[in-house]
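The freezer alarm interrupted the setup, so I double-checked each line after restarting. Inputs confirmed:
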Amino acid sequence: MAEELTARAPSLNGGPRIGVYVCHCGLNIAGTVDVQAVVEFARTLPNVTVAREYRFMCSDPGQELIEQDLREGLVNRVVVASCSPLMHEATFRRATAEGGTSPYLFQMASIRELVSWVTADPEDATEKAKAHVAAAVRRVALHEYLEPREAPVHPDVLVVGGGIAGIHAALTLADAGKHVYLVERESTIGGHMAMFDKTFPTLDCAACILTPKMSAVRAHPNITLWTYSDVVEVSGYTGDFTVRVRHRPRYVREDLCTGCLACIDACVHKQGKVPDEFNLGLSKRKPVYIPFPQATPPVVVVDPESCIWFKTGKCPQTCVEACERDAFDFTQTETFDEVKVGAIILATGFRTFDPRRIPEYGYGRYPNVYTSLEVERLLNAAGPTAGEIVLRDGSRPTAIGIIHCVGSRDVRFHAYCSRVCCMYSLKLAHMLRERTGAEIYNFYIDIRAPGKGYEEFYDKILREGVHLIRGRVAEVTDEAATPEEEGHLVIRAEDTLLGMARRIPVDMVVLAVGLEPQPDTEDVRRLFNISCGGEGFFTERHPKLAPVSTFTDGVFLAGACQGPKDIPDTVAQAGAAAAEALAMIDRGAVALEANTAHIDEERCSGCKTCVGLCPFSAITFDEERQKARVNEVVCKGCGICVAACPSGAAQQHLFTDEQILAEIEGVLAYV
Amino acid sequence: MTTMPASADTHTYPYYPGCSADGVGRGFAGSLHAVFERLGFPLVDLVDWNCCGATAWPSVDDSQALALGARNLALAERARPGSEPVDLVASCAGCYRALLRSAEALARGPTRSRLAGALEAVGLAVEGRARPRHPVDVLVNDVGLDRIRAAVVRPLTGVRVVSYYGCQLVRPLSTFDDEHDPVSMDRLVEAIGAEPVDWPLKTRCCGGSCYCGGPVIGAMPEATMQLSYLLLREASRRGADVIATVCPLCQFNLEGFQDQMARRFGHPLDVPVAFLTQLIGIALGIDDRRLGLHRLLRWRPLPIRTVEPEAAGHARR
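Predicted 3D structure, all chains:
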């Protein structure tokens, strides 16, 4: 059978002459597999004319071995036994092409990931490696001579999420002359950073460094900014995505509103009525509102849930009267846009841990227990208290406890470190001490300050007289053990440096809540066809070498949607994602896989099973000839038609039945 | 949690009294029977029950301790043949936890075949139908607050009740309420017209597990006294008219030694400590003797207000 199949393979310079190259990968492979034995075995296989070993096949000299053998005509097909296709298939295909033939006359045998890393016994490993080589040799003998294909790349880019990551990525791309669609779910861009007061370790005012970038986004001719909008549908593939975006009605025309805010003053509600989301419920807003003074775009929003007009149909509409530009339009409905883009950058950010899940810390039970994000709002001059630290009960604190690692480094919730909490807790300690003169107690497990200027900042805070107590807090209680504790919240913790239990009475508790994935991460993951790790953050293609790419070509990651990150790291990653997208666009074309499907017309019965199944509408039906036909430019090589075809007429390049059977036979014949 | 039986008004529950029912817990057992009967869910004592396996036994031989509990579960299943789950009501928090432990061990513990063998040797078997339930769980989730509210004839208006859940009611195997901040007892207190007082020590240890025979003569008198004292002091500070408990050990421990503690810590203490079922019984109009109020050491009539004054200024959650 095997000989018969080999005979059917396309003849290239007088039949297959296969070169087998076995990689040591340092000791990764050679430490377990007897490479010499595998090479000697390969020499005995049919059609193998050359078998060599080399310490690192992926190195230049290693690749040169392949190219030279091809050029000299010693071989016309290549098998490399090394790591995995994910790692180096592209490398060796390129080497094969450099040698002057089709890059697809190559097959990889994975003897590292599938053998040496997972097989402890050297003899077993060596035998297993031989089987993989035998399979690859049989298979590559049947490979066709295929030309590489390319598809053009649409030059526009979609950026999802308008926090600092999305803003920075969009501006980088736009400055490079690319058109960017920036889609933000909220009514303004700015994300979490817009809520902060100061940023560590430099204590820059967050708004002062963020708002110029927000204005730049709005003013940039290359950026289409869509706020109050979300992506509802994504189709196509790298270089050629079609994206459908929904715009929610804000009942105010964005093109007319100038952000004068006269309508807010004129609203029939003289005071705020509903909890202000941007201030995390620490203040109230009116039904017509703008999240914060520098909101971008500076366009007000009407909340139909609380607006009297929407609820009862009876309102004098003083807001409409006050608007000099006639910008109100209560008849607005959802609208949609559909755009083509070549690349997508996801910058959907994070949410903070809900400390109600740790009842012993008393959040939601004791009014003077706050989350760190709430304290950012209290400290912010544009916040609910204009920057004054006034507690929910109207008092001013003289002692404040800051509890680190709330929801992080806790196997009950998130085992990981959220990376930013130590530093922002130290920043809050500094700010609160500066504003109130209160005694500040930070309760920590370890202080993690591994950034530029971070350790120095920690040192500075220590010198300022902030108390640092090493120990995870057991509980926050209002049970007073001594008269001094009465009327205070008491933080109970074991001080692991003193080796004793402590009770610290305070007036205010700040919970340094960790970062976790957005609640709709799973929907977003599905929408963009990417993957999430166990904790729910989006998975990068490689944790070290491809940190902004995903397993879906053309979709890149930026910021905390990939994992907890501070602002410097987020901006760096956003720049990297923009650069990756730019590289792709400026190349102008993306390489397409050669594994497209085609129809053997002699076998096609015209049943049309494949036509409806194709997710890319690549199959048409020729009514005249009563045969299906695959448009190989559109085909993505998913293989659905091949599996579904009842007569075996649909076949796929690089995955023909003969090739797959030969590979299986290779393994079995050896074993 | 539990499906209500079709004829709810005549549903009876098998009841595991435990050793305290004839001793320090007589007031609990009596008031529990009276209240459940009044609400239309009479409790039927398990015939031939034995020790639950709590006490010191687990530290001597854990599988023997588990086997003791398992036998009670098997008896409950035998008393209620069929395929329906059997809710075995256990009122002492120690028994409740011990029976939960046995049920867990029978379901998935490493010694489950040994336990089954021990039962088989005495002609018993467990199908896994028996589920230990605490009366607080049954009252809130099966009987229901509406039914209780409707049965109240004498609302305890204005009575400030601090609910002490104790350490074993909501953990480690119990799932009907939050282990750090449970609310079931407070909801029952509210249902009988009294005022639940929030406090942070709902599940803090009373010291009952540190001793056998009382805090003064027990193994660790200092630690025990300190733990109980903290609870009593905090409840007094919050203006409790009465502390409600649902465990005989907690009740005895908190009520019985207040004078010693007052002397030891130099802080006057005089807080009545009753079983929650006694308070419910009062609201349902059940006779004081039947409720066993005469067995309490510090009992005094509750300060029930006849008219709710406007804007009662107590801080509530």
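Quick read of the result. The domain at 10-133 of chain B is CATH 1.20.1050.140 (Glutathione S-transferase Yfyf (Class Pi); Chain A, domain 2).
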